Structures are given as C-alpha cells and as structure tokens.
Amino acid sequence: MEPKVVLVSHGHLDHCGAVPNLMYQNPDVFMTPPTAEFTFLLGRDTLKLAESTLSGVPPFDPDDLQKLGRRTQRIDYNKPFKSHGYRICFYNAGHIPGASGIFLESEAGESLFYTGDFNLQETRLVPGAAEFPEADTLILESTYFGEEHVPRKETEERFIESILDTVDRGGTALIPSFAIGRTQEILMLLDAHGIQAYVDGMGRDVYKILKKYPEYLKDPKRLDRAFEHAILVKDHQRDSILKEPSVIVTTAGMLNGGPVLYYLSRLYKDPRSKVLLTGYQVEGTNGRLALEHGFIETTADILTLKPRVEKYDFSAHSGDSELKKVVKDFCKKGAERVFVIHGDRTEAFAEWILEEIGVDAYAPANGHTFSF
C-alpha cells in the first residue's frame, strides 16, 4: 500500500528518519513546526554521514529531502485539520519539544489515538503530556513496560555529585547526550547547580531551532540562560579543553559517532575521568559495549576505557505505572482495542491488558494487517 498521508509524531531518528524515502509516493506530510525542523536537521546529517562512510550509499538523496520540505505542512498542537477524509489533531506528548500524540477520526466517527513516544512527567525542558482524547483504538509505545524510573530528583543528585567528584580529582566529566532534548536538559541541570560546561555537537544546532519555538518549552528563559553560561566548542578548540579538568556535554548519546569519539580517543587512558551516559544504550552500540565490557570500537582501533563508565536514567519516556494508567484511562472511556508497539516486551504488555483489563490487545509484527 502506498501512503497518501504521513503523520510524524516527533523528531527522533527512529520516528522521522525514513520519511524522505517515501517522497517518490508523493504523500501529504504533517508534523509540528519543531518536528519539521528536527526532521530536516537529521536528514541533512544522515546525508553527511553517508558521504563520510566507506560505502557512501545514502538511504535517500538531497532531492528527496527538498521534496519533503515542499510537501510538509506544519501544524501546531490542538489545531484540528482534515486530510483524505479524516479529522486529525496533534496533542502534546511531552517527551521532547514538538512531540505529538496523534488523533484521527473518520467521517463515520471511528477514532484512533497514537501516543508516539510520550512522558506524563514534566522535565526541565518540556511540560508533561497533555490530557489525551477518547478514542476507539489506542496505539501506544511500551518502551518501559515492566520497568519504573528512578525518581528524577534522586538521579539528578547522584549525577551532579559524580561530576563534582570527577572534576575535584582532576578528571574530565564527559557526558554523551542525544542532540535533541537530552543535551538541552542536561545543560539546564548543570546550570541550575552552577556548573559551567562545554557543549559540542549537534545539540548546539538544536538549541538554535528551539529558540524559534518558545511555546513548546517549559521555561525558555532558563534554557537561554543555560546556553549563555555554557561554552560552545569549535572543532579547533577540543584539544585545549582537555588540558584542564572540565565538564563536556556532547553527541552522540550512544558513542557511535560525533565529537564524543574524539574526546574518548584522548581520554581513554585517564582513570581520573568519567563517561556519564544519560540514556538507554541499544544493544550493539558503543555505549552498550562501554557499559558492559569497558571498551569501544572505532574505525581504526578498539579502545579499552580506563575512565569509569556510569549510566543515569534521564529517560523522556513514561515508566511502567504510567503506561498502564494510560491504557486503563482509555479503556474506561470506551477504547475497544489496544495495539502495543515500540518496546522489547510488547507481547507481554498485550497479554497484561487482556488479562487485567479485559480489552482486546495486540502486539503487531511488521507486515501484519488488521480489520475490524
């Protein structure tokens, strides 16, 4: 089937990165303004990375990205619109700026709500998700089904304590962070504790985008202050930074590319330094290797890490109890079926919904189709 409409929930690569590949089918594309900017930023970065790899084969070409720009319509939260016989509305999903839960209603009155990645809890960067509308069908992410987050305040205290300890011992606190959302939140946290940090990588470009959309942020002034107090790094400055104890926030969050590999190539023999991971590390990434085995792989070498590697849960996803609460709330309001996606335990979650709530639940695999 060829999609006539593409609705993009948010600007993380696993949710928007393939959209340029669909442009040969000429779909109408809708997303919030920040999501649109993040999608193009990541698209340009994807093309740049393809040029620098040995294969040099990009997943799409610059014309696809330009076509996506022409076909994209930018829609703010709570602004209903129509397309191909459906009424559609984006709702704030928390998670990152511009992240959306997506509501669809057919002309016959059948309705569906897709949560996208969501977070009911506010963070320093964004407010928590808005109240979601009623729908006949719910499609929700399940990233943290079966797992609760450590209270954010406790995580922040441990994180700050570790950074101060590192600098006091004469080391560098290297903080790999996802460019969209995480870099900005970490800098706001550091600034709140009077810690000046260097910031390197794509997170700087993301901040320039966010300045244009203050209405999507929890506290734009605090974000501005965090970046005003941080020191933006230029490529030629990286060596000089490492000559003294410092705090560096940089991409990439899973150590698979970006400036963080340069810093690690200089710091990997220093036991006074630390690598403070701020998010989930996917299996097979350098971040997972560093956590579990104490080494990373580069194009030229395998580096055994003498700096201590620590992981902190700064997740922008709701945890187990909130996932279950969302399902219960939808089902109480009349949802007839639930589709569970985007997680490692989707089948277990679907079974829980059926057994505990008594509503039909599915964990679809790629290629499955459903009709009701």
From TrEMBL:
<dbReference type="InterPro" id="IPR050698">
    <property type="entry name" value="MBL"/>
</dbReference>
<dbReference type="GO" id="GO:0004521">
    <property type="term" value="F:RNA endonuclease activity"/>
</dbReference>
<dbReference type="InterPro" id="IPR036866">
    <property type="entry name" value="RibonucZ/Hydroxyglut_hydro"/>
</dbReference>
<dbReference type="Pfam" id="PF10996">
    <property type="entry name" value="Beta-Casp"/>
</dbReference>
<feature type="domain" description="Metallo-beta-lactamase">
    <location>
        <begin position="4"/>
        <end position="178"/>
    </location>
</feature>
<keyword id="KW-0378">Hydrolase</keyword>
<dbReference type="InterPro" id="IPR022712">
    <property type="entry name" value="Beta_Casp"/>
</dbReference>
<dbReference type="GO" id="GO:0016787">
    <property type="term" value="F:hydrolase activity"/>
</dbReference>
<protein>
    <submittedName>
        <fullName>Universal archaeal KH-domain/beta-lactamase-domain protein</fullName>
    </submittedName>
</protein>
<feature type="domain" description="Beta-Casp">
    <location>
        <begin position="183"/>
        <end position="290"/>
    </location>
</feature>
<dbReference type="InterPro" id="IPR001279">
    <property type="entry name" value="Metallo-B-lactamas"/>
</dbReference>
<dbReference type="Pfam" id="PF07521">
    <property type="entry name" value="RMMBL"/>
</dbReference>
<dbReference type="InterPro" id="IPR011108">
    <property type="entry name" value="RMMBL"/>
</dbReference>
